[in-house]
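Support request, please re-run this one:
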Amino acid sequence: MLRVFLLFFLIPFAGTAQYKWIQADTTFGPLPKGVQLFYSTDSLDGKPNKVFFCKIPITNRQLLFSIKVGNGKRYTPSAYYQDNGQPFLVVNTTFFEFVNNRNLNAVVQDGNLVAYNVHSLPGKGKDTLTYRHAFASAIGISRKRKADIAWLYTDSSNKYPLASQTVIPFFKDSNATVYPSFIQSKYRLKKWKMQTAVAGGPVLIQDGQIQITNNEEIRFPGSQINDKHPRTAMGYTENGDLIVMVVEGRNPGIAEGASLVQLAHLLQSVGCTEALNLDGGGSSTLLINGNETIKPSDKTGQRPVPAVWIISSPKQGQKRPE
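Re-run finished. Output below.
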């Protein structure tokens, strides 16, 4: 339960919706200089809500951004926290499958592409010989500490992902594979040299405006874009702050969750110029100094996941990740 001594104030962030964001910096332990934590319990369209976001100055060189992967295994965010020097922030990231604990989205760890987007989805029924080819969006931070969101083509034969700064609509054909030469000639993609990055989708904010690319990324079918669930999202502001946001859900009477549209409004309200959705539902977990901000929706608590984004600050007394 949040302590009563939190500071209350309304932050005048850009955006059409106004939410009362309450500063919670000291509730979960000390934070590095410049890092801020906020929460809101303002209702979403009249329904109970609980959402947290952490604002992290990307250019602060005392902060280390990294991805940790399970290498064929899944671990809870708390396990990643304990095994990686107890960083001040741990958050879930990619979509994944349960059989082989495999990330289904691109992951860039220490400048190396260690997981790949799934680009070809087989059709069903009469379309069993047809494949839909999609290009998931990703957020990354470069060695020069610049954040970017782009749509990626990834292939194990390429050292770097190939990226487009505009959404790539999915397309259909009878080929089970999308070849680098074809996609490069069609869209003129550029190498995306990020130090730390993770893909997910869909994109929710572009140029400060709500522009959801769910149909192009074929992420959620039909009306699922309007379903309310726990959510995890990341974005960045014009001032160079990384925004990490989680929405609690599936907790009747306390927090019902957010639709993708509602999530986009929340991200816009805190000043994101670009932002994207990441894996949500039972996976959504944000740890600050090892403490849960939202209550995980799985009955067993934190869901083991194959990848997390961590931020640490060795100069603030936290251990450098291995």
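Residues 35-316 form one domain. The two ends are 33 Å apart (CA to CA).
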